[in-house]
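User: Fold this; tokens only.

Assistant: Input:
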Amino acid sequence: MGVEIKESRVSEDDLAAMEDFVYDYLAASVENEDDGGRMRWYPWHSAEYRFNHIVNVRELAADIAEKEGADVDVVRVAALFHDIAKLDADQEVHAKEGARVARQYLETHGEYPASFVDRVCRAVERHSHTDDLADLDLESRCLVEADMLDKVGANGTALMLLRMGYEARTHMDAAEMVERVLERGRDAESRVHSDTAESIAHQRLKRVRWFREWLEGEVPGMD
């Protein structure tokens, strides 16, 4: 029985160069806007937040891919590019536009096999898939699962509380905001397909429930 040989190995230097490219692209997307940055004051719409989300998703997706037997190289690279067009394209087309940018980059930086480039771009284009994840190839599924999971748990809770500050809301509204994280987490838990992603979702939901219980125990009358 032969040993399976991967068609491509993406070095750490390659990944670092991709990271630089992605961050610079995001920053330019904000700087090039006529109004000085779409809602620049809002963390969701800054290059820094979007890049942090991308790095989080890459780590989650790589972990899921490794444990589920997917091609980790494909998943890591796709994760880096999945939201690259988020700040300069409409939500409905940002995945397709991100796949276009990824293809252009990969075809002009290095000598990646065409099949590798195709699989990366397919995952990027499909990462906004909202139907049954069983319909996706394994690498695309790992990316979608990681993208959902980054928005739940402690990280998702911190972002919701940060949002409260930007909206000038008090801590008395915290229960409502934490409940939104729980709803998002329950939705993610019901949609993920792999055992690895389901385990991560369960762990992150548990953290949010603990935080809500602590709040309720310390803030009487919390809404």
